[in-house]
Specification:
This protein is of the alpha+beta class and 112 residues long. The protein is built from 3 helices and 4 strands, in the order αβββαβα.
Length: 112
Amino acid sequence: MFDDLPPDLARLLTLRVWHAMWVQRIDAKIAALRKREAEQERGRTNRPAEPDWIVELGIGNGRPPIEVHAGDCYAAGKRRRAVPRDEARRLLSSGVRACAHCKPDTHLRILD
């Protein structure tokens, strides 16, 4: 057994209080991290499903559609909204540009 602890009661009690304080701080940090991880997991499981098709919207009055993307396209801008398959086909047929990266016109079988 190691006997490198102080020989007097007062210092031993001080060390005990100090270590109890650190154990309490460590336990609080563990609880906070577990809570954060649980919240992140709830966020992942409750996240709405990614849409199949999105339309990127322009700036200005009425925010006209400017480009159609697949739902998981990385090149879609921030101004966008989800659209159903039929509306994506209609927009592409009416001349709205198809994304050059995800090529929704190919997936929707729209011929030029």
